[in-house]
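Researcher: Sit down with what I've pasted below and flag anything odd:
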Amino acid sequence: MVLFRLFLIVALLTIGIYTGFTVAEHGFGLIPAFFGQIAVVDWQGQFNTDFMMFLLLSGLWIAWRHKFSPLGIFLAIAGGVFGGMLFLSAYLLLESYRVKGDIHALLLGWRND
């Protein structure tokens, strides 16, 4: 769990700093740039489409983990889909402490089904 948490911290810091530099240099124009490359149908568009599917899967997992509760759906959309790794690394880091390092509870949530 220590190495996993260390990875999450490194990922959070890396993507946070990189995002800060990108916003400072290019502003908040992510959406048109992201979908614009998909519309071009080139390798960058293919990568963006692949990445978008990972974001959707991340959001679906978060919603499922929270049993599709209103909070779970909010976290899924706002964080999992639009927040990407910046959100997911912070979410998993906090949840890893909340579940006291229990990897099963971290991945599955507190499920009684």
User: Anything to note?
Assistant: The longest helix spans residues 2-26. The chain has a mean pLDDT of 93. DSSP finds six helices and no strands in the chain.
